[in-house]
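#structure-requests
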Amino acid sequence: MRTLMSIVLFLTTATTAASAQEMPKPAYDFSLPRDARIKLAESAAPAEISGNATVYLLERTGYVKVREGTNGFSCLVDRQTPWNLEPTCFDSEGTATTLLTRLFVEEQRAKGITEEKIKNELEEGYRSGRFQAPRKPGIAYMMSENGYLLVAPSKLVRIPAHLMFYAPYANEKDIGSPSPDIRMPRVIRPGQPDAYIVVIPAAAKHAEH
């Protein structure tokens, strides 16, 4: 439990402050076959959801839509830093709002724009109305067993399967500031338009017969 909670805390504190020579190899492998990368994106959610979702593949020029879905969900391999590997499936609300910022970020990275400038442009985009925070409750699935997160300064760790619920501008106080030693929801990206409440589902307990 402590290990899982430590990883959840990493979700709140990951940073790109380390210098380039300290960085590990990015977790996303552009050389993987297309089908394998599609399966990686789909692994974020149960098959009955991801199998009918729109799918975006990350290419060296940014995200490319490779399948049009029918259920309003969108699946892709997100990267909060260029080193992360975060299979994610956004519901229809996330598709209409937060997903647009993810597409923008990777388009800018492909052009060689710095992370600091991208961050500033995102903030300005939210201020100007170009981007919107989620307008109602919703869910983003991150149930893949193949997610990795950069933790400062130079280490990638596996992310536990979890669910994220949109909570624009929320912080830990809004959910009671739980102790990091207790298996409880956390807030990531606190105070930001794309803040989330993160929940790690408990392992199922089988009834005794």
